């Protein structure tokens, strides 16, 4: 199996992220707090509880180079946490939202972060040295519904968003005094808030999205059990729509230019790969299990029905003595990579079952050619 370790931290986990050296993990146990655990003596020990928010924390991102944590919550607020001695000190970020903040992500240079919200807007936040505080600029009047995820392009300027209006959009977030113009005069130099592209591929809600390591491909998932791959982002993009017969995905992560991991309601990471022509297809589940010996195979209906109640496709309960698989929807997937690295082979997933599972692709011989 690809699962290296399974950790039961809580009854339910909303979101999680890792410290730069991967020795600590921060997660929200489906309430207004952020718990930080550290691996000590082979056991995970709770060392900090961040409790400035007063509603469910919906997003956490731990900066790799800055070692700062940014959090957002349904209380419409955001905090940037800096470690001073043994304490985490919060700085309030005024988002000026009238609806919940739903997601957050640091930019690659970590001089900005983006916040998606239920107010149909995206806040781009940056540090203002003169006044010693974080300020936000808002991208308005573009989304028709809640912004469910944000993803930064490697160039630190372009930002992609998904929304429950079924669309994927790419914006320029160029801020004078924070960003520098490129010498090529590319679309990334457009003025702040300018929409570079809008994709209407999905007929349902759209969720998690990621850029490939090079930034040449953008992938996002829909609630209609489809995943979309977009190349040549700009005025004339080329796109692929890939349908699969399993339950919808909630998030995705590029491992390389030719491999993507999707996670969602099937409680098992899905592997998608691209061939030499750049055509994407579903390869397999990452944590495939063998059926229980002696079990009788049921009908297709019973197999599908059984998945809703944590049963295997043959209609019988799982009897694996070392369960590595999530028991409920996987809501987040996070890469485990060091500062400056563009490649990685390990990642973690968390979900509504309160588990955090670490996966290692190096042990999967059939996937090595795609890394």
Automatic annotation (TrEMBL):
<dbReference type="InterPro" id="IPR036322">
    <property type="entry name" value="WD40_repeat_dom_sf"/>
</dbReference>
<dbReference type="GO" id="GO:0005885">
    <property type="term" value="C:Arp2/3 protein complex"/>
</dbReference>
<dbReference type="GO" id="GO:0034314">
    <property type="term" value="P:Arp2/3 complex-mediated actin nucleation"/>
</dbReference>
<keyword id="KW-0009">Actin-binding</keyword>
<keyword id="KW-0677">Repeat</keyword>
<feature type="repeat" description="WD">
    <location>
        <begin position="140"/>
        <end position="172"/>
    </location>
</feature>
<keyword id="KW-0853">WD repeat</keyword>
<dbReference type="InterPro" id="IPR015943">
    <property type="entry name" value="WD40/YVTN_repeat-like_dom_sf"/>
</dbReference>
<dbReference type="GO" id="GO:0003779">
    <property type="term" value="F:actin binding"/>
</dbReference>
<dbReference type="Pfam" id="PF00400">
    <property type="entry name" value="WD40"/>
</dbReference>
<keyword id="KW-0963">Cytoplasm</keyword>
<comment type="function">
    <text>Functions as a component of the Arp2/3 complex which is involved in regulation of actin polymerization and together with an activating nucleation-promoting factor (NPF) mediates the formation of branched actin networks. Arp2/3 complex plays a critical role in the control of cell morphogenesis via the modulation of cell polarity development.</text>
</comment>
<dbReference type="InterPro" id="IPR001680">
    <property type="entry name" value="WD40_rpt"/>
</dbReference>
<comment type="subunit">
    <text>Component of the Arp2/3 complex composed of ARP2, ARP3, ARPC1/p41-ARC, ARPC2/p34-ARC, ARPC3/p21-ARC, ARPC4/p20-ARC and ARPC5/p16-ARC.</text>
</comment>
<comment type="function">
    <text>Functions as component of the Arp2/3 complex which is involved in regulation of actin polymerization and together with an activating nucleation-promoting factor (NPF) mediates the formation of branched actin networks.</text>
</comment>
<keyword id="KW-0206">Cytoskeleton</keyword>
<dbReference type="InterPro" id="IPR017383">
    <property type="entry name" value="ARPC1"/>
</dbReference>
<comment type="similarity">
    <text>Belongs to the WD repeat ARPC1 family.</text>
</comment>
<feature type="repeat" description="WD">
    <location>
        <begin position="50"/>
        <end position="91"/>
    </location>
</feature>
<protein>
    <recommendedName>
        <fullName>Actin-related protein 2/3 complex subunit</fullName>
    </recommendedName>
</protein>
């Amino acid at each position: 199996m690809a699962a290296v370790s399974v950790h039961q931290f809580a009854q339910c986990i909303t979101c999680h992220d890792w410290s730069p050296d991967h020795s600590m993990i921060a997660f929200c146990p489906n309430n207004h707090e952020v718990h930080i655990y550290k691996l000590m003596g082979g056991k995970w020990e709770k060392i900090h509880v961040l409790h400035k928010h007063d509603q469910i924390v919906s997003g956490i991102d731990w900066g790799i180079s800055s070692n700062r944590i940014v959090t957002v919550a349904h209380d419409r607020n955001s905090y940037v946490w800096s470690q001073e001695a043994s304490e985490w000190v919060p700085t309030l970020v005024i988002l000026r939202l009238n609806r919940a903040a739903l997601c957050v992500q640091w930019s690659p240079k970590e001089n900005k972060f983006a916040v998606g919200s239920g107010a149909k807007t995206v806040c781009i936040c940056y540090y203002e040295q003169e006044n010693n505080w974080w300020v936000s600029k808002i991208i308005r009047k573009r989304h028709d519904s809640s912004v469910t995820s944000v993803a930064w392009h490697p160039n630190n300027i372009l930002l992609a968003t998904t929304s429950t209006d079924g669309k994927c959009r790419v914006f320029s977030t160029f801020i004078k005094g924070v960003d520098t113009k490129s010498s090529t005069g590319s679309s990334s130099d457009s003025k702040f808030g300018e929409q570079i592209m809008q994709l209407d591929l999905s007929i349902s809600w759209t969720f998690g999205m990621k850029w490939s390591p090079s930034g040449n491909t953008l992938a996002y998932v829909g609630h209609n059990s489809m995943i979309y791959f977009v190349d040549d982002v700009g005025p004339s993009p080329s796109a692929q729509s890939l349908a699969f017969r399993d339950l919808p995905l909630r998030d995705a992560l590029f491992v390389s230019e030719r491999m993507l991991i999707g996670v969602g309601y099937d409680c098992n990471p899905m592997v998608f790969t691209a061939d030499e022509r750049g055509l994407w297809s579903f390869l397999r589940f990452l944590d495939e299990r063998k059926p229980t010996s002696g079990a009788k195979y049921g009908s297709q209906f019973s197999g599908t029905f059984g998945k809703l109640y944590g049963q295997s496709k043959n209609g019988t309960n799982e009897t694996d003595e070392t369960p590595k698989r999530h028991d409920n929807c996987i809501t987040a997937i996070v890469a485990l990579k060091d500062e400056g690295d563009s490649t990685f082979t390990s990642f973690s997933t968390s979900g509504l079952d309160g588990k955090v599972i670490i996966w290692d692709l190096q042990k999967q011989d059939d996937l090595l050619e795609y890394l």
